[in-house]
Amino acid sequence: MFNQKYTSTQTQWCPGCGNFSILAAIVDVMNEMNIPKNEVLFMGGIGQAAKLNQFIPGNGFSGLHGRILPAALGVHAANPELKIIINTGDGDSYGEGGNHLIHTIRRNPDIAHFVHNNQIYGLTTGQPSPTTDVTDGIDGAMNSSIPLSPLNLALACGATFVARGFTGDREQLKEIMKAAIDHKGYALVDILQPCVTFNKVNTFKWYKDRVKPVDHSHNVQDKEAAIKLAGTWGEEIPTGILYQVERPVYTQRRPLLSRGVIPSREEITSKEIEDRLKLFI
Ligand SMILES: Cc1ncc(C[n+]2csc(CCOP(=O)(O)OP(=O)(O)O)c2C)c(N)n1
Ligand SMILES: [Mg+2]
Known about the structure:
Largest sheet: 8 strands, mixed
CATH architecture: 3-Layer(aba) Sandwich
Strand content: 15-25%
CATH superfamily: Thiamin diphosphate (ThDP)-binding fold, Pyr/PP domains
Distance between the termini: 42 Å
Bound molecules: thiamine diphosphate, magnesium ion
């Protein structure tokens, strides 16, 4: 069972949805990286994007809308050796889960987070999300707000890996995903994902006309350059890995957690556990 190849099951998405490309990319990436299935946990919140983990047979966990990051942090603390791959939507992670996003990034747990950014609340039938462009094409009061730049938010919070992908460039997306999964720390990949049913503004063609892979000469450790690229949104939208640096992950900075998976920690005495528990009383 652990050596089984990754596959996908039938989905519940609309024909033409950008999510198909993301699912296919993940299945390819997991098979190409050859990570045993028992070493991976796919997690998601609520929404069309967040359902992805339910379409890959294997270890999966679906949480509440906006609340998957604290659950993932707990999983990481209990088993730092597990590869945690999260799929959520822009509404889930940048809207309702915005506060969790900020504080998870600061803690730098070892998590690869793929946000399917269709710039809309898809599952609940097309309300504006924090990334919806200011435009007449999408109804809703929030639409007069300035859109959030999620990648600049992540950079401001101290993210160690920040990237932007596009469902229409599967090869680049796969390379970004592999780097995000390999990255030791929290990796945010914002994936431009057309919603063919509810977002008639940011269509496949709209993205295709604008996306441009970042130049090979871009230095991924240059934060100022990354901030500029992350905030570039208009006639041109840069894609690729914008920023990547090393910083100790959450569990490395906690003496107790840095000793690995709980069942393998023979050296932990019941006295030590009691002492730790007293800290919470
Ligand atoms: C706590 C909570 N608040 C709100 C909802 C309703 N709800 C379900 S999905 C969703 C938005 C989904 O948008 P997004 O995360 O962008 O995912 P998409 O469907 O676009 O992929 C909302 C508001 C919910 N299920 N739970
Ligand atoms: Mg969405």
